[in-house]
Structures are given as structure tokens and as C-alpha cells.
Amino acid sequence: MRLTRRDFVKYTGFGAASLLGMSFLGCMTKETTKDTLIIGYAEDLKLRGDPAKIDRSIPKFCVLERLIEYDLSSDDFVPSLAKKWDVESGGKRIVFELKKGILFSDGAEMDANAVKFTYDILVVRKHSVAPRSVEVIDDHTVAFNFDEAWVLNFAKLQDVHGLGVMSPKSVKPEGDPNGTLVDLIGTGPFKVVEYVENQYTVLEPNRYWFEQTGLEPKIKKLIVKVIPDEDTRVLALRSGEVDVLIDNYHGGYDYTPRNQLSALKKDGFKILTKNIPYTWIVVFNYRKEPFNDIEMRRAVNYAINRDEIAKIFDGWVRPAWNGMFPPEVPGMAEANIRYEYNPEKAKEIVNGKDVGEITLIVNKSQSDQILVAQLVQQQLKNVGLNIKLETLEKGVYKQKRNSGDYNLRIYYIGGSERTFYMRIFWRFLPPEKPWKVYMSDNVTEKAIAVVKEFDKTKRRQKFIEFYKALYEEAGVAPLYYEVVAVAEKPNVEGIKFEYSEPRFYSTYVKA
Amino acid sequence: MLRYIARRALQIIPTILGISIISFSLLYIFPGDPAEFIVEARYGVEPTQEMVEKIRIEMGLDKPFVVQYFNWLSKAVRGDFGISWTEDKTVMEVILERLPISAELFFATFAISVVFALILGVISAVHKDKAIDHICRIYSLLGISIPSFWLGLILIWIFSVQLHLLPAFGCCELKHLILPVLTWCFSFMAIKTRFVRASLLEELSKNYVITARAKGLPEKLVVFRHALRNALIPIITYFSLSLHHLIVGSIMVEVVFSWPGLGSLLVESVFKRDFPVVQALVFLSGVLLITMNLVVDLLYAVIDPRIRYGD
Q: Is B84 within the bounds of a domain?
């Protein structure tokens, strides 16, 4: 058959039109995505040097996994790398059976030796969340020994101040707990492929994790860029240079400014928040006058309008009317606590007393807390308390706190979910330390009862008793419940919070 | 000349000692217990009394202040500022890692600022009280008055957020350099422009310039061959002295643009209470300033043969 010029034009035209149509249909049916997600974060991830000092966020929840996790909603410690465990010696010894077939991102198997190596890093440093010792029983069984028999032993193993299981090859000399971190190798969904100190870290999916979970990675690269200045971070998101901003939720710094979240949302950015068991409070110096008097502590609680305080943060945090922790915390809702805003009652209490000038101290490095302290100062002045606000540099704040040279101070209790239990210990349990927030025979006894109880049903009841005792003694004045926030471009999908932390394993970025 | 050099070199020793005392004292000037800072920086936990006491002995903080100071100084003069409390490296390693990054930003800013400050200063002086002089003077005033962090954020907003032309942060490619350099140049150049203008105007008012003009020399020759050459002596001195900005001169610019240089290091170290690094940066910055001062003094003779040193 002879192909005429007209046929040629006809067939090629038809072919081209078909191809165009198919590609158009392809576009319609399959969404195109970018293969890289860029995160803006305030701090360097510290992936070299002392392995105990790696950053508390991304390396710990993207690269490493722990033996167990803590689920706040059920108040359960749940298996992660550990399959199951036995509690021995009344709770001083926990023997974990590890899951088999879990691979580090370099292909080596995660075993009891790797677990021992990891926790020995904390043991040799006498870290605050370290066990006393770790023993390898066999390749997949490891025992942890602790000094005390309490539920905090579980909390320590998943606390953000500690570590997730890392390969002994992560350090040099290999397997030496005193060694230097050279290449963080974990079992988590991502592996570190490039790290430039103080600039950026490049992570890629850990194929073994995805094979194990049966999930498909939707991004090829996760890049974490270090942007210390909070305004620059927001501008970087607005300019499109980063896709996501995540908070460091540790303690009132290095987060996306709350007063910019609404503006970002208005401009089309997505804001994800997760409530965490973290509460900003006024701490009383209850060892000296005037706040050794329970009535005076109650007066402060009556005088504070928590709604007004929450408004400082543009509605992104919740006022702390329902006790020391938000209602989703174990036992908190059942405790049925409700702080009352009653300035008249506060005035009645204050009027009869000659308390003189009261010093309220606040740490200057937590800039939002300065605003909070100013409002607290004003509210307390309204009921007749003469408050001298001292905005102090971190070192001076600590010095005054340690020497007890204050009457009131702004501080926090709780933390992310995984820090919840340890902060009960760090804020309310003996031994007495300057950073403890309130201790009395009754409250301390009840706090100890909480952490000594391994049965979660009984523990819930003990939590309720602890919250009520603290409320009745007006041990602290809760102000607002903190959140952790993620600000992301509209084309980012699939970020979800697990245990207070944003996870990226099913995240993708629409092109 | 050699005697002069020796004398001047000896003269700077008391000044360096003064700087060293101030640098070392920072550890105690800052409120709080240094031993507690070390525990916090090293272990990342609230310090217990036991830990604090252990560190106090280990670090020699239990010794008298003078003993601690001389121990520190004897090492510092050999470039040993100890170990960083937060980085697990020697302080010099930490500084040397960041120095090239700062140097890149500084020398780019310095070179551009010098060239444009000379051009603007000369134009401003030559056209004194004319429109262009007023513009240059307003620029100088703005350059000195506008805070770098504010200008930096405005430039990011314009060039990154609105125009998508330049990156908002990062280092170390050419595109990353433009906005920080522009920001720093704005203030760096402003002061220098004023200085060039003032120096040149002073020379232009001198008798030899009037004589040159009376002789009928073209204005270009009067300005560039005679007045500017003489005005250059204080200008070079002033410009050279600004070299000490290399160490920590760009703090705000580095912080705003996430430029991981020595300025950022100083801020981080202050916040983390990494005092060995803070001490070293303050000390080295002071020493660099004094050294530049000495070098410039010695260079006077080269720049201006009329200057002699009494030998």
C-alpha cells in the first residue's frame, strides 16, 4: 500500500492527538507528586559527636525506634521493637523479647546486642533516663535492671530525652558506648544519607522498614534544613523554599510563632496541631510567705482569667480550666476539676492580708511567656496583689529559682506524650530540687502512688487522687495547655501525628 | 623602624592581657554557676549537686579565680581554648570549621563596600550640598539607622517571598550570598561612605588644594591625584580596622539568613552557655582588632613616606 502525503498527515495527526489525549487522561487520573519534602527546623540535628546528644525530634522519630511506645489515650506502654516483656523483681527488672527480622537501614539485624549498646550509651553517662544496667540474655532477649520498682522504668525507655535503638556501627570505635557518633543507623522509616552540620540533613526511606510494614514510600528524599530564626522560617515557608515547618515542642522555644499561625492559615497554608499533655503554670514559692498560705495560692487561682491568657496565642492553645493537664490525660476528665475565675473572691482573700511586694520571675528566652507573665501581673494587680515582674536572662532565672529568691514564676509541667510520666517525676516527686513545682506530704504521697502502680486501672484512680490533692492544695496555678504545631504548604499531604510527633512516612507533595 | 615595631608590639601586650581578663571573666560575669552550665550542656539534664561538685573539681572551677585565669591564658596563647561544652570538639576546631563560612560573607561584603563607599564618598564630597550629596547622606543615615535584622527580613520578603528570585536562607552558594551581603553592605558601606566623604572634604579644604586649583589644574587631577591620595591614609586605616568584623561582625545577618558562620556560633554559644567558645571568640576578636591596629600603624610608613618613626 502506498502512503500518500495526506494519509501521512492524517495518521500522524491522529497518533499525536491520541498521545496528547492519553497523557491528558493520565494527568487526570494520576496525580503527579514531587519526590522531595523539605522541612524547616530551628535546630541542627546533632548527628555527630556524642550519641546521647542527638536532637530530640526528627532523628528520634524518623530514624530510630524504641522498644516500646507510650499511648496517652489508653495510658498503655505498647510494643514497638519489643514483642513482649515480663516484669520481674517487683518491677525493678524488665525482660524484653525482641521482634525478630527487624533490620537496621544498613541491612544488619537488630538484636539484643544493639539494644544493650544503645542503652549503655545512657548508662555510662549516668543519664537521667538510663537504667542501672542492661543484660543480653540471648540474641532476641534483653533485660533491663533499675534501682526502683516503678512504672517510670517503662517511661524511661521511650522518653524523648533517651535514645531509640541504634546500630553499634553508628559510632566509632564500633560498638563502644563511649564512642563518637559518625553515622546514625536506626530501624525507623528513614535513614540518614547526608549531614552537613548546622545546615541540612538528607534522609531517604529505609526500604527495610517499608518492606516490613508493607507501606510504599511516597517521597524519595526528606531534607531537614536548619533555620534558627523563627521569622526567617516562616518566610522560607511562604517563599516555597521549605514545604513544612515543625515545632521543637520541648519548652516554649523554637516553634512557629503562634501569632503567625492564623495569618499563614488565612494565606492558604495548612496548620496541623496536636494537643499534648503540657501545661504552662504559675509556680508558687510555697516554702515562704505569702504563698506558704493555701488561701493565697487559691487567691491567685481565682484571679487568673485563663481565657484571656489563651487569647495571647490567637486561639491556638486551650485555657487550663480543667486542672493541671488537659482532659485527654489519664484520669483528668474523671477528676472533674474546674478552676473558677472569681476576682471578687480573690480580692476578699487578699484584702485581709498584708503581703507587700510579690516578685514574679519569667525566663526571657521564652518570649511568649513574657507576654503571659505581663498579663498574669495585670490580673493579679486587679485583685490587689502588688506584683513586681522580673524578666530575667536564663541564667539569672535559674539562679533565682535555685536560691528561692522569688514568690511566683512561670514554668511548665508535662511535655510530649512520651515525656509525660518522667515529668511527673521531675516536677512532683522527691528528692526536692529547685525545679520541682510543688511538694507536700499529701500530694507527694499521691504522686508516688501513681508511679509505683503498674496496673493501669488502679493507676488511673491514683492519678485522680493526685490531681485532686494538687487542686485542693492549690499547688500550682495552671494557665494554658500547650500544643505542637505543623505549618505546611497546601500541596503537602499525609503528615500525621503519632505520640505527639509529626510522622512523614506517608507524606507526599503534590506537584 | 625595627625598634618602633618592637616598641609597638610590646605596647599591645597590656591591652591583650586586658582583653584576656575580660574574655575569661565572662564565665563569671554571666549569672549562674559555671559548673551547672557544664552539666546542662554536657548531659542535657537538670544538674544535681553531686554532678555539679564533680564537674567543679574536674574542670578546676574550685580553684581561685587568678589560678583559673592563668591556666586558661597559658593555654589560650597557644591557641588552646579547651573543649567546647556542647560540641565534643576543641574550641579551635569549632571556630576553624565556621571561619571560612564567615570569611566568605565578610570578604564579599568588605570588597563591595570598599569599592562603593569610595565611589559614593567621592561623588558626595565632590558634589557637596548638591542633590546627589543629599541622596548619599540620606542613604548613609538610613544605612546606619536601619537594623540589619529588619532589613534582612524585608529583603527576604521582597526577593524570596514576592519575587522568588533569591533564597531566603542557607549557604554556601553564590545565590545564598547575595541577600546577606546586600543586607550587611547596606550598613557597612554607609559608615564608610560618610567617612570617605568627610576625609575628602577635609583635604579639599586645605591650602594645597586651593593652590592647585589656583594653578589651573583640572578638577579631576586636584581631586584624584592630590586630595584623594592624602585622604586615603585615614580611609585605609579605618577600612583596615573593620577587618576585625571577620570574627563576629555579622551576628544579626548570619542569624537572619541562617548563615552558619562565627556570628551564629557566638549567638548559639551564648544561648547554650558554651563559655569556652564565647571566651575564645571575644578574645580572638579583640586580638584581631589590636593586631590590625598595629599593622595599619606600621603600614603608614609605606603609604605615606613623610611619616617616620623617630628612628
A: no
